[in-house]
From TrEMBL:
It comes from Sinorhizobium medicae (strain WSM419). Keywords: Plasmid. This is Thoeris protein ThsB TIR-like domain-containing protein. InterPro entries: ThsB__TIR-like_domain, ThsB_TIR-like_sf. Residues 8-105 form the Thoeris protein ThsB TIR-like domain.
Length: 166
């Protein structure tokens, strides 16, 4: 079994690539504490010829992942070929899920993909401090809530945001 220390980021590659790239830039910038082991760094050679060969590569990434971050943009909820499949795999693997709202919402909203709408997940707006906070804290909270049988959307309190100066 692989050592699970990676963060798998799921997003609309056609419309939201800039947000994914910004997250990787935060991680590369020595002036920020933001850091994560990116599952997309694994098997980065692209084989786009067959859907099943792509999914095989993605399954290898999931085998090393401990967390799913879903970048939720205007079209994410409509993507069923890979994005929906990635969320299904994460749910099967019981990975903690962070929904990152690219529209700035601090809660689950109408843009949330149906696949995770009723699942245990935390929702945050796109921003370095709050995404970093979620990545550090949500996995432990997720497993504690799962153990208690809880599900559905979660949000950080207004005080959490105030404590971060947001």
């Amino acid at each position: 079994m692989a050592y699970r220390n990676k963060t798998y980021i799921c997003f609309d590659g056609d419309n939201d690539m800039k947000y994914y790239r910004l997250m990787t830039a935060w991680a590369e910038n020595p002036n920020f504490s933001f850091n994560f082991y990116n599952a997309h760094d694994l098997n980065s050679a692209r084989d786009s010829s067959q859907e099943e060969s792509i999914k095989k590569q993605l399954r290898e990434r999931f085998a090393n992942s401990k967390l799913l971050v879903v970048l939720i943009g205007n079209n994410t909820r409509y993507l069923t070929k890979f994005v929906k499949w990635e969320m299904e795999v994460a749910l099967r693997l019981n990975l903690p899920i962070i929904g990152v709202n690219l529209n700035g919402s601090r809660a689950q909203d109408d843009l949330c993909p149906p696949k995770i709408r009723n699942e245990l997940a935390i929702y945050v707006p796109f921003g370095l401090k709050i995404v970093e906070y979620g990545m550090k804290n949500w996995p432990d909270d997720h497993y504690a809530y799962k153990k208690e049988g809880k599900s559905g959307p979660y949000y950080y309190t207004e005080q959490t945001y105030k404590n971060m100066g947001l």
